């Protein structure tokens, strides 16, 4: 075994800048010679110097190792030796992976802060290199022949060799799995001649993996040769019985997590199966398990669950994953990516969805106990708000979660994922010191071995899942005010005196924890991560609730990010109490590759606590954002979300993992106990989840009642009414024609059986119908070829209403007509991208005339040509009796209508290319010909105007209004109408910058501006519109929860007036049908996850209903 | 006659500037629509070592209509008749204006490597190819040596 050069820096706190060694530096400098030159000489020289400093009790080899480990730096070596209780064995231990991870953190050692190790008792002495575990008898085949070749009682060594065979073509298997591996275990005599091989596959697998992983050493002795001849002669292929002694090596025990499986950087979780490191780790783990089994080693202490797992043989995570993968693959229809787009709930990633009923059941249990929580008061002189009763309860709950429960940190509670084993005593070991380790610890889930006792980590934090609008922000801020500094008592328990609300600096004796990676302890900073749109809201809230100068807040965002890690370390910067940043920033500053450690201050600082707002943003554990959040360092961790589970059970796991709620945060564990049973429709899984969630989640809803039967929050009433409208005859005509056409198409597709793969197409039609309901002009194209010779009476091209090229419709069209994905699809996508970003097409060459494109047109397959050239070609084809096709790829048939002009349109309309998927209409000001008489009001516009006029007259506009629509073009129209009628308004939509949005919101609060137009999506997230008390929803959405969220912008804490909401629906139109679908969706009890077929059937039903 | 279309000019330029190995196509001085073509027999085929002369003509409707190509060298091949006419789909119904002289000649060269005796236009050669392929191949080789120059490969 060779030793990697070991970097001392990260285990020893020698600070090159500290004053103690500065005086030495000049002295030593003279001795430091360039290593490259004559290294032998210098190292000898240095060795002698080192020896003279340290003394002669340390052996030369150890000194040599020390020197090597310090990369030849004399000064460092000496410092290392003196600074710490240096263990000789640390010189020989190699744990390269952990070091790489630490490479980014420079040393920080402040003389007044002690650094306790968090979770284990150190085993200081080491006087053994290997320990006997057990011995087994194996049989092998000899490969030699002759006399006097083998002596019984000769020492035997083992060596393994791996052979690769032909790769197997597997479906999506990892590269490693696709090769067939076979190992051969040879045994040799002491002088190296090979004597034979062990054929037992299990044994050879085990031994070779253990050798590879550096976990064990093996020694053998021949017991018996199984042949009839005399003992002296051995024949080829004789059976040989060997006693194999297994020793476990000291080096196998790690101080730090091994490979890439660690708690904090859990690759096994994030990357899923199949990476090389995972395989190796898995093999190692299985080998160790096998070894224990063979030697009859049983755990002294082990949790019940682990025993069950062992029996069920489900500790092999790979098998679980594989099995899972296979199941996934049989179901997954990779051919149609449309399904992905339009079945967002059926994402294969995390398994089936949960029905609303199930969600409610989950929440219910968590909510039951919550009514009885006592209340806590925030520090009155710093916290200015008056908390409501339920908020005080929340504060109390959070405080208790953050406090370590003294009962749970007794030393005897072993971490449930670990097992304790005792080293067997053998005669040979009697000479060892009696202090040496009697026990060791093994984690059968990850394969880690350790000599240190593994304590249970407590999760200091939880999920604050109050419904939207109940004031989670305030609750968290009250928590921050209550505990600004950690307080410690000597037992390392953190007990906060709840009645003491003066944070006094004298209580700071030590930080609660200093992670072993030496993150700078930002002991009083709380990090808040939120979506971008809420950045300023948080900052403002902090300032609003805090008395002057009691809480400093900074925003870490954008170009002016100014947290300089060096400055912080040098203590030149005063850290704020609250730091707010966004998920986007977090993600971009995070690097999860080992070679490129994150240099961002966000990840090199240990915060007092970290809070994730809208924590459902990290529901997918494999996203970079999620990984970034996991990597944040803080003991106290909180997640705020109105909907902790949006769709899938996996959403919860991500939060649990973030919170480090052991052992559920271990993915293997979660999978075994929750995910897999859930997918198999085992009802107990829900029970388990409930059990997990209950201590973690606090959830109250607006309509809950407290202990006394009073509603916990008294919001003014919310009145939602639907105003049914009728089309004018002209509108009716237009609607009818489009409807009939759509219906025909729908039926056509229905018959053709291809309805679901043309979902996009149908969806497009539906969108047009909905637009007509808002205003016909949104759906009509001026340049539409609505002629009879076109078999589809409707413009099926990618032109939108203004005859402008609309990329998304292009995409839709592309997907519907040419949905087969082949490699030429890449070309098409590339072209679409180019179009989207305004590529200059005038420089392209026409494949027919070889000239620059003149009046360039695009074919549906994205190949381009001059209009004239193509038309000529089409004509010549016609003469031959053939239909038009693309000259390059022969796709067809194409008619002139299918051609898209690209040459000039793009330049003019670059800005007009919209990316709003929900709206297929033009984004900017729609230009209406002035010769059209003033804009005719559609039914809805008329109704809206009526309502607004009523408000203006009756109430003198004391009520501010919010108008929601999904179609920004509709908002444009409304804006025009309002201007004409002299209403003053502001508008907020997705295209605006953050600063613009802030300005709009501020303006809205001022008197004089009474109306705000918001696009439904942009308005959904966290905005506070309580200045308004009237809301108009111009058009319905498929999902009533989105609408509810929008209404909640107005109807939330802070609203003082009655809220009235009006939804406009056109009678006997598709909108009515949408309403009934909404109702049905809300009421469906899906059962434990519908199968794909059931889901499909539902979609089909929905569509049928729409077109009935 | 109309001035030569830009396409033909460009194609010619490119053919000369960037020649395909084993194929040479040069326009005739008198008529720029008429090309003298030399194709080297592809390796691993019975036509190996031979250089075959062809003529290629771009009709008026080009590129809407395919070029007309004909073998001038006698060749024993199931898809080429005794007059040198070639049975190739892209020269007939599968023509597309996106194809060009270069691609046509490459296809012909490929046809030499991969004769297709199942073509309905099969003449006795095709029949021979099907009945007794080794013999037919030998004959093709014989003809190559007899009729196709194998001294000087096409120069550029």
From TrEMBL, chain A:
Every Helicase C-terminal domain range = 950-1096
**Helicase ATP-binding domain spans which residues?**
453-662
The RING-type domain sits at 846-890
Q: What Gene3D superfamilies does the record tag this protein with?
A: P-loop containing nucleotide triphosphate hydrolases (3.40.50.300), Tandem AAA-ATPase domain (3.40.50.10810), Zinc/RING finger domain, C3HC4 (zinc finger) (3.30.40.10)
Give me the Gene Ontology terms describing cellular component.
nucleus
Keywords (alphabetical) are: ATP-binding, Helicase, Hydrolase, Metal-binding, Nucleotide-binding, Zinc, Zinc-finger
Bias (Polar residues): 100-109
Q: What is one GO biological process annotated to this record?
A: DNA repair
Listed GO molecular functions? ATP binding; ATP-dependent activity, acting on DNA; helicase activity; hydrolase activity; zinc ion binding
Database matches in CDD domains: DEXDc_SHPRH-like, SF2_C_SNF
Q: Which domain of life is it from?
A: Eukaryota
| Annotated stretches, region: Disordered | 100-121
Pfam families for this protein:
Helicase_C, SNF2-rel_dom, UBA_Rad5, zf-C3HC4_3
Instruction: Give the family this protein belongs to, as stated in its UniProt record.
Output: Belongs to the SNF2/RAD54 helicase family.
Looking up PANTHER family in the UniProt record yields:
DNA REPAIR PROTEIN RAD5, TRANSCRIPTION TERMINATION FACTOR 2-RELATED
Protein known as: SNF2 family N-terminal domain-containing protein
UniProtKB/TrEMBL annotation, chain B:
Which GO terms label this protein's molecular function in UniProt? ATP binding; ubiquitin conjugating enzyme activity
Task: Tell me the active site.
Answer: 87
Q: What class of enzyme is it?
A: transferase
Every UBC core domain range: 3-149
EC code(s) of this entry: 2.3.2.23
Tagged with keyword NAD: no
Give the highest taxon in the source lineage: Eukaryota
Q: Which UniProt keywords apply?
A: ATP-binding, Nucleotide-binding, Transferase, Ubl conjugation pathway
Entry-linked InterPro entries: UBC (IPR000608), UBQ-conjugating_AS (IPR023313), UBQ-conjugating_enzyme/RWD (IPR016135)
User: In the UniProt record, does the keyword Kinase occur?
Assistant: no
Q: Tell me which family the UniProt entry assigns to this protein.
A: Belongs to the ubiquitin-conjugating enzyme family.
The protein's name is E2 ubiquitin-conjugating enzyme
Q: According to the entry, what is the taxonomic lineage of the organism?
A: Eukaryota, Fungi, Fungi incertae sedis, Mucoromycota, Glomeromycotina
């Amino acid at each position: 075994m060779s030793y990697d050069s070991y970097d001392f820096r990260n285990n020893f706190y020698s600070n090159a800048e500290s004053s103690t060694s500065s005086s030495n530096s000049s002295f030593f400098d003279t001795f430091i010679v360039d290593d490259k030159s004559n290294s032998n000489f210098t190292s000898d020289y240095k060795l002698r110097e080192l020896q003279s400093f340290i003394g002669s009790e340390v052996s030369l080899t150890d000194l040599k190792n020390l020197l090597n480990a310090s990369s030849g730096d004399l000064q460092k070596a000496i410092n290392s030796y003196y600074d710490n209780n240096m263990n000789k064995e640390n010189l020989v231990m190699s744990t390269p992976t952990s070091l790489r991870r630490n490479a980014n953190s420079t040393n920080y050692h402040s003389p007044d802060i002690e650094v306790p190790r968090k979770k284990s008792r150190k085993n200081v002495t080491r006087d053994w290199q290997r320990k006997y575990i057990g011995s087994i008898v194996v049989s092998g085949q000899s490969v030699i022949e002759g006399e006097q070749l083998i002596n019984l009682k000769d020492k035997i060594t083992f060596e393994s060799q791996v052979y690769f065979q032909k790769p197997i073509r597997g479906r999506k298997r990892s590269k490693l799995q696709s090769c067939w591996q076979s190992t051969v275990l040879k045994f040799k005599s002491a002088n190296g001649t090979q004597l034979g091989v062990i054929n037992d596959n299990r044994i050879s697998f085990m031994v070779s993996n253990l050798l590879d992983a550096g976990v064990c050493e093996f020694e053998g002795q021949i017991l018996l040769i199984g042949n009839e001849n005399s003992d002296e002669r051995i024949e080829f292929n004789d059976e040989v019985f060997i006693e194999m002694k297994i020793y476990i090596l000291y080096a196998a025990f790690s101080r730090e997590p091994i490979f890439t499986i660690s708690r904090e950087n859990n690759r096994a979780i994030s990357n899923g199966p199949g990476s090389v490191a995972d395989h190796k780790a898995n093999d190692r783990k299985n080998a160790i398990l096998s070894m224990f089994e063979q030697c009859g080693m049983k755990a002294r202490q082990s949790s019940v669950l682990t025993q069950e797992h062992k029996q069920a043989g489900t500790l092999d995570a790979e098998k679980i994953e594989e099995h899972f993968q296979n199941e996934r693959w049989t179901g997954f229809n990779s051919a149609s990516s449309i399904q992905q787009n339009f079945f967002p709930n059926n994402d294969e990633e995390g398994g089936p969805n949960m029905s609303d009923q199930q969600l409610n059941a989950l929440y219910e249990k968590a909510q039951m106990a919550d009514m009885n929580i006592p209340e806590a008061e925030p520090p009155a002189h710093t916290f200015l708000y008056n908390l409501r009763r339920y908020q005080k309860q929340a504060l109390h709950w959070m405080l208790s979660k953050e406090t370590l429960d003294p009962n749970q940190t007794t030393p005897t509670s072993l971490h449930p994922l670990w097992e304790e084993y005792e080293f067997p005593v053998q005669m040979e070991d009697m000479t060892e010191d009696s202090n040496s380790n009697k026990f060791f610890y093994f984690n059968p889930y990850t394969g880690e071995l350790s000599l240190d006792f593994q304590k249970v980590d407590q999760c200091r934090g939880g999920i604050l899942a109050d419904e939207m609008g109940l004031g989670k922000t305030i609750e968290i801020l009250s928590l921050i005010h209550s505990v600004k500094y950690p307080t410690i008592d000597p037992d390392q328990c953190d007990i906060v005196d709840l009645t003491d609300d003066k944070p006094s600096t004298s209580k700071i004796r030590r930080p609660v924890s200093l992670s072993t990676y030496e993150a700078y302890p930002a002991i009083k900073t709380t990090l808040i991560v939120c979506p971008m749109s809420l950045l300023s809201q948080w900052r403002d809230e902090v300032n609003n609730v805090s008395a002057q100068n009691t809480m400093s807040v900074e925003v870490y965002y954008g170009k002016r990010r100014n947290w300089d890690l060096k400055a912080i370390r040098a203590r030149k910067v005063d850290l704020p109490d609250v730091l707010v940043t966004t998920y986007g920033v977090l993600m971009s500053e995070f690097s999860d590759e080992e070679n490129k450690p994150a240099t961002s201050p966000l990840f090199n600082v240990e915060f007092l606590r970290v809070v994730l707002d809208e924590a459902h943003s990290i529901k997918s554990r494999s996203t970079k954002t999620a990984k970034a959040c996991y990597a944040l360092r803080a003991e106290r961790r909180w997640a705020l979300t109105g909907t902790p589970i949006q769709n899938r059970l996996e959403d919860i796991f991500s939060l649990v993992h973030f919170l480090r709620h052991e052992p559920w945060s271990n993915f293997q564990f979660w999978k075994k106990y929750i995910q897999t049973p859930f997918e198999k429709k085992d009802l107990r899984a829900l029970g388990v989840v409930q059990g997990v969630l209950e201590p973690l989640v606090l959830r109250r809803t607006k309509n809950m009642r407290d202990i006394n039967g009073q509603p916990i929050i008294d919001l003014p009433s919310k009145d939602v009414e639907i105003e049914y409208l009728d089309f004018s005859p002209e509108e009716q005509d237009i609607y009818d024609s489009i409807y009939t056409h759509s219906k025909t198409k729908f039926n056509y597709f229905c018959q053709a059986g291809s309805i679901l793969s043309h979902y996009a197409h149908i969806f497009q039609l539906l969108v047009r119908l909905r637009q007509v309901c808002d205003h016909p002009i949104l759906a009509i194209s001026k340049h539409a070829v609505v002629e009879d010779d076109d078999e589809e009476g409707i413009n099926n091209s990618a032109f939108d209403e203004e005859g402008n090229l609309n990329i998304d419709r292009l995409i839709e069209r592309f997907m519907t007509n040419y949905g087969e994905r082949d490699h030429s699809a890449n070309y098409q996508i590339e072209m679409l991208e180019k179009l989207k970003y305004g590529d200059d097409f005038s420089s392209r060459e026409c494949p027919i005339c070889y000239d620059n494109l003149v009046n360039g047109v695009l074919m549906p397959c994205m190949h381009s040509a001059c209009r004239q050239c193509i038309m000529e070609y089409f004509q010549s084809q016609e003469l031959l009796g053939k239909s038009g096709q693309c000259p390059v790829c022969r796709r067809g048939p194409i008619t002139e209508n299918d051609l898209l002009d690209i040459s000039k349109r793009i330049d003019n309309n670059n800005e007009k290319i919209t990316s709003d998927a929900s709206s297929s209409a033009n984004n900017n000001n729609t230009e209406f010909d002035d010769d059209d008489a003033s804009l005719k009001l559609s039914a809805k516009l008329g109704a809206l105007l009526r309502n607004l006029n009523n408000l203006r007259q009756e109430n003198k506009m004391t009520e501010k209004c919010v108008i929601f629509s999904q179609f920004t073009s509709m908002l444009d129209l409304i804006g025009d109408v309002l201007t004409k009628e002299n209403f003053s308004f502001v508008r907020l939509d997705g295209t605006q910058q953050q600063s613009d949005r802030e300005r709009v919101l501020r303006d809205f609060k001022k008197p004089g501006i009474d109306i705000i137009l918001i696009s439904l999506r942009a308005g959904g997230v966290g905005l506070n519109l309580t200045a308004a008390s009237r809301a108009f929803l111009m058009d319905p959405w498929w999902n009533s929860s989105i609408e509810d969220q929008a209404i909640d912008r107005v109807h939330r804490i802070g609203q003082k007036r009655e809220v009235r909401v009006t939804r406009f629906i056109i009678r006997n139109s598709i909108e009515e049908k949408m309403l009934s679908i909404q109702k049905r969706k809300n009421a469906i009890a899906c059962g434990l996850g519908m199968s794909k077929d059931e889901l499909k059937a539902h979609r089909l039903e929905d569509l049928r209903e729409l077109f009935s | 006659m109309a001035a030569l279309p830009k396409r033909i000019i460009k194609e010619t330029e490119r053919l000369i500037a960037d020649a395909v190995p084993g194929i040479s196509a040069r326009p005739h001085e008198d008529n720029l629509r008429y090309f003298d073509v030399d194709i080297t027999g592809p390796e691993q085929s019975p036509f190996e070592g031979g250089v075959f002369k062809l003529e290629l003509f771009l009709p008026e409707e080009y590129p809407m209509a395919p070029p007309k190509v004909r073998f001038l060298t006698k060749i024993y091949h199931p898809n080429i008749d005794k007059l040198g006419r070639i049975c190739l789909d892209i020269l007939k119904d599968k023509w597309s204006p996106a194809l060009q002289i270069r691609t046509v000649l490459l296809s012909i060269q490929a046809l030499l490597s991969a004769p297709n005796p199942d073509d309905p236009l099969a003449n006795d050669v095709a029949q021979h190819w099907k009945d007794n392929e080794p013999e037919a191949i030998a004959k093709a080789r014989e003809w190559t040596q007899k009729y196709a120059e194998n001294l000087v490969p096409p120069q550029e």
